[in-house]
Amino acid sequence: MKKVIRFPSVKSNINFAEKIADEISDKANISTELYGNILVALMETITNAVIHGNKLNPNKFVEVTYSNDYKGIKITVADEGNGFDFNNLPDPTASDRIEEPNGRGVFLIKKLADMVNFELNGRKVILFFKFVNS
Predict the structure, then answer these.
(1) Residue 104 CB contacts under 8 Å (≥ 6 apart), including other chains
(2) What is the dihedral of CA 22, 121, 100, 92, to 10 degrees?
(3) Choosing a second label site near 83 at 20 to 30 A (CA), which of 49, 101, 117, 122?
(4) What pLDDT is stored for residue 134 in this prediction?
(5) Which domain holds residue 51?
(6) Would you state the pLDDT for residue 127?
(7) SS3 14
(8) Residues 41, 34: contact at Cβ < 8 Å?
(9) CA angle, corner 127, sides to 119 and 121, nearest 5?
(10) What is residue 85's predicted lDDT score, i.e. its pLDDT?
(11) Is residue 104 a contact partner of residue 38, using CB atoms and an 8 Å limit?
């Protein structure tokens, strides 16, 4: 299974995360726990791409590619923004940030995915989720 979906950066399109997670679940027959991890990580990644990367500009697009093999599921989310310094993000668990209402997305993504890589200065995020027996 390999699929590419491309959509404009409007807030309502963040809901594609659920559609994509459902499709992955149906085709790869994944566990409920893995589905939850994929859904939350994908929701955070797409939200970051639409809101922070492309700044809700409907003329800029987010592209999501996903595929699986016997080892697991690979999901790539790319935006057309300027990127970000993914190596120097504030720690959302630090005492001075714990009450902040946002800033946890990348932290959550890293906790939920088995592997996360940033490319193109943070404009492209690659998530990998292992199957349990891999």
Answers:
(1) 92
(2) 90
(3) 101
(4) 45
(5) 2-130
(6) 98
(7) helix
(8) no
(9) 15
(10) 79
(11) no
Question: How many domains in the chain?
Answer: 1
Give the CATH number for residue 89: 3.30.565.10
| CA dihedral sign of residues 27, 32, 34, 40 | positive
Q: Report residue 17 as tokens.
A: 């995360």
| Residues in Cβ contact with 23 at an 8 Å cutoff, skipping those fewer than 6 apart | 3
The Cα 112–Cα 114 span in angstroms is 7
The DSSP-derived string for 28-51 is: HT--HHHHHHHHHHHHHHHHIIII
Q: What share of the chain is helix, strand, coil (3-state, %, to 5)?
A: 40, 25, 35
Q: pTM above 0.85?
A: yes
